[in-house]
Each structure stands twice: as structure tokens, then as C-alpha cells.
Design goal:
The complex is a heterodimer of chains A (215) and B (243).
Chain A lengths: L5 H8 L15 H6 L4 H25 L8 H23 L1 H7 L1 H4 L5 H9 L6 H31 L32 H17 L8
Chain B lengths: L1 H12 L10 H6 L4 H30 L20 H23 L1 H7 L2 H4 L4 H12 L5 H29 L11 H16 L3 H4 L6 H32 L1
Helix pairs in contact in B: 1-8, 3-4, 3-7, 3-8, 4-5, 4-7, 7-8, 8-11
The chains are: A mainly alpha (215), B mainly alpha (243).
InterPro entries (chain A): NqrD, NqrDE/RnfAE
Organism (chain A): Leeuwenhoekiella blandensis (strain CECT 7118 / CCUG 51940 / KCTC 22103 / MED217) (Flavobacterium sp. (strain MED217))
Enzyme class (chain A): translocase
């Protein structure tokens, strides 16, 4: 990590745990919940957000001195929308099935509060290199939660990971299924994503008492 | 008939918050007090009811494949649908700016209590989500688009009202310390979403029947719908009264 000073390293590492965008800053919840029934969709979504946030942060940071503050929201939306169109077209070209699964949620990256939140809070006041690191860090913190939720929902809900049957075959009764294990189909329903995130928050805050809210 | 069905379907079955998790950020952040929740909910209803029909017109006459034929037959091959994100969000941002000016002028106290969240309606996923779902569900007429926007807004309003009422009450309960605030709100929302899933069977129940019974079933479902709505409204207002 000789490349990064201690302060810069904080930019990347803080959002992964103690300043996580989803569980602490409460940003970018919508997409975190809707597309996490499969691990693969979660990973693709996480990568898309890393791309959009890192590049967007750099662009906004480069333009921060020439954007009139009255219309900055519209400027930010245009930048994000352009980046999201790129992601959407790339997904449609190279992973058509997946882009069908993600459906409107790729488009909803535009209104993902995490993007606007970081633009407002960081990129408008910092240089491009640090904004880039901040973008990577926050998007990675977001992706981390997405992947954790996706992992548990796919594992417990359909007994697979990335489509591989890691717990055995439910029809041929091999592996865990031989001793009477059953998939919990409830995990595939969307409300369970909320409850899984709730449990992640619970675990995180009981490990770090400073994060506990008054009420 | 079509209108009534779409109206109740968008409020209860495809509820923005509980079925598609749109607008969760402001839903979580502004639901601490019932009064602010009502203000934001009303703003969302208004913005959705205006932007969805506007974006429907855009989609119909500019964006979709072949939409530009009104300019002349040589434009029939153009497909601008890849521009829909950027045009939809521009419409929304403009409308939100307008709402902000109107609210600041006529309801300054509401404006102050909404604070940062009014401009953030522009980036509320519920608003863009409404337009994108309108596009992907292929809504046929302008009237239906308006209906869809209005009903989705009302669904979102009900959801934020309910959670705000619950959060005002839960302050007096003994929640485990690490779950306080955000954690318990997530879990309550999850449970409410499971509750809302029970609405799911109401309109799809009639689909397998034959044409003639289908009509009867629909009417039945609608009367059921209205009573359900009354019940949940009564519940919510009771919750408010209780505080």
C-alpha cells in the first residue's frame, strides 16, 4: 500500500465497515434489496455501481469548479445517466439474460442515493484522485453488503451459489438433501432481503457499540 | 373497469415500497415523524402523478421504436429508447424544481420541515422507477399512465404513513440496543412487506376462470379491494389517533 497515504487508505477502507453506505449512511437501499435473490445478479450490480460511482466521482470532481451550484443536481443527473446508459448497453450486448433479470434496476442506478450522496458530499469538494478512491471505497462497501445478502439468499433459498448446486441435488436427494434438508423458498421472496439487511445491521452494531443509535 | 383494476393493483399488489423497494432511502430517512412523512408522501403523489403521464408522452412520441413516424415516414426506423434514462430524469428534475418553488411559496413550514429531502425527490427511486415500470409494463393510454402514477404515489404514501406511525410508537418499546433505529425499521418493513404479499392473490385469482365468471370475479375482487383499503386506512388513522 505504498502507493496510498494513510489518509487515502482510509477513504477506501472506512466505507467497507464503520462508515458503510448501506448500513450506516442509509444510502442506496432500493437496489440492494430488489436484485439480491441471486449471487450473480448481486455481483453484476456491485460492479456496475463501482464503475458508475468511480468514473462519475472523477468527472464531477474535474468539473466541480465550473458547475453553477444552482443547477448542480441536473448536471450530476446527466453525468450519471450517461454512465448508466453505457452500463446498460454493455450489459444488453454481452449479458442479455442477466440484463433481463436486472430489468429496470440498472436504470435505477441513476437515482441510487449513494451516487448523488457521494457527489454532493465528496466529489464537489475534493480533487479527482481522492474522489476516485472515495468512489471505489463507497461502491465497494455497497457491493460488499449486496454480495453478502445475495450469498445468503441464494444459498438458503435455492441451495446454489452462482448456479452451482453446492448443497447437493434436491431432486436426486444427494448431499445435505439426503439427510432431510429442505430449501427455504421464503428466502427468495423480496421481503427477506429487508430482514437479512436488518440482521447484518444488528450483527455490525453489536460488534461496534459506537454505532448504536439513540432511538 | 381497467382503470379500477390498475388503481388498486398499483396501490396494494405492486406497492412501490413493499413489492419493489423503490424510494427506500427517503422512506427510511423521513419516517421518524408522521407529520413530515405526510408532507413527503403528498409531494411524491403529486410528482408521480405529473411525471408518469409526461414521460408516457415522451415514450410514445419520441423514444420507442417507430415513435417518430409523426415527423414523416423516413423517421420510422429510428429507435431512441436508449435515451429514455436521460430524458426521463430530465423531466423529473424539472418537475421537482417546480414543486419545490410552489411548496416554498405556499407552505413555507412544510418546506422547512422537508428540508433537504424535497430536492432529493428528484433522486427518489420511486419517481424514476414509476416511469421505468410504466415503460416496461407497456401501459397503453395516457389516462392509464396518469392512473398508474397517482395510484403508485398513494401506495408509497400509505407505506410511509404506516411506518412513521409504527416508529412513533416503537420509541416506547424495549428494542435490543444494536437494533434500535435503522435495524428494527428494516425488520418491521420486511414484516409489513410479507403482510402486503397477501394482497397478491386477489386480482390474479380470477385469471384461470372462463370469460363470463371472470367479470363476476373481478367485481367481487374490487368490492373486496375497497373494503381492504378502508380497513388499512382505518388501521393507519387509528395508529395516528393512538399516539
Amino acid at each position: 500500500m505504498a502507493l496510498l497515504s494513510k489518509k487515502d487508505r482510509g477513504l477506501i477502507l472506512d466505507p467497507l465497515a464503520d462508515n458503510n453506505p448501506i448500513t450506516i449512511q442509509v444510502l442506496g437501499i432500493c437496489s440492494a434489496l430488489a436484485i439480491t435473490a441471486q449471487l450473480k445478479a448481486s455481483i453484476v450490480m456491485a460492479l456496475s455501481v463501482v464503475f458508475v460511482l468511480a468514473v462519475g466521482n472523477v468527472v464531477i470532481s474535474l468539473m466541480r469548479n465550473i458547475i453553477p451550484s444552482k443547477i448542480r443536481i441536473i448536471v450530476q443527473l446527466v453525468v450519471v445517466a450517461a454512465l448508466v446508459i453505457i452500463v446498460d448497453q454493455v450489459l444488453k450486448a454481452f449479458a442479455y439474460e442477466l440484463s433481463k433479470t436486472l430489468s429496470v434496476f440498472v436504470g435505477l442506478i441513476i437515482t441510487n442515493c449513494i451516487i448523488m450522496g457521494r457527489f454532493e458530499a465528496f466529489a464537489l469538494g475534493n480533487g479527482p484522485y481522492r474522489s476516485f478512491l472515495d468512489g471505489i471505497g463507497n461502491a465497494a462497501g455497497y457491493g460488499l453488503i449486496l454480495i453478502i445478502v445475495g450469498f445468503f439468499r441464494e444459498l438458503l433459498g435455492s441451495g446454489t451459489l452462482l448456479g452451482f448446486k453446492v448443497l447437493g441435488d434436491p431432486i436426486a436427494k444427494t448431499g445435505l438433501y439426503a439427510i432431510g434438508y429442505e430449501n427455504n423458498g421464503f428466502m427468495l421472496l423480496s421481503p427477506m432481503a429487508l430482514i437479512v439487511v436488518g440482521i447484518i445491521i444488528w450483527v455490525q452494531r453489536s460488534r461496534n457499540k459506537e454505532l448504536i443509535e439513540e432511538n | 373497469m381497467e382503470h379500477v383494476e390498475l388503481f388498486f393493483k398499483s396501490i396494494f399488489i405492486d406497492n412501490m415500497v413493499f413489492a419493489t423497494f423503490l424510494g427506500m432511502c427517503s422512506y427510511l430517512a423521513v419516517s421518524k415523524k408522521v407529520s413530515t412523512a405526510v408532507g413527503l408522501g403528498a409531494a411524491v403523489i403529486f410528482v408521480l402523478a405529473v411525471t408518469v403521464p409526461m414521460n408516457w408522452l415522451l415514450d410514445q412520441y419520441v423514444l420507442r421504436p417507430g415513435a417518430l413516424t409523426w415527423l414523416g415516414p423516413e423517421y420510422a426506423d429510428y429507435d431512441l429508447s436508449f435515451l429514455s434514462f436521460i430524458l426521463f430524469i430530465a423531466t423529473i428534475a424539472t418537475m421537482v424544481q417546480l414543486v419545490e418553488i410552489v411548496v416554498e411559496k405556499f407552505a413555507p413550514s412544510l418546506y422547512n420541515s422537508l428540508g433537504i429531502f424535497l430536492p432529493l425527490i428528484a433522486v427518489n427511486c420511486a419517481i424514476l422507477g414509476g416511469s421505468l415500470f410504466m415503460q416496461s409494463r407497456d401501459i397503453q393510454t395516457l389516462g392509464l399512465a396518469f392512473n398508474y402514477g397517482l395510484a403508485s404515489g398513494i401506495g408509497w404514501f400509505l407505506a410511509i404513513l404506516a411506518i412513521a406511525a409504527i416508529r412513533e410508537k416503537i420509541r416506547y418499546s424495549n428494542v435490543p440496543a444494536p437494533l434500535r433505529g435503522l435495524g428494527i425499521t428494516f425488520i418491521i418493513t420486511g414484516l409489513m412487506a410479507i403482510g402486503f404479499m397477501s394482497f397478491g392473490g386477489m386480482l390474479t385469482g380470477g385469471e384461470e376462470k372462463t370469460e363470463t365468471t371472470d367479470e363476476v370475479a373481478k367485481v367481487e375482487v374490487q368490492s373486496q379491494d375497497t373494503t381492504e383499503e378502508d380497513e388499512s386506512l382505518a388501521e393507519v388513522s387509528q395508529e395516528i389517533n393512538n399516539k
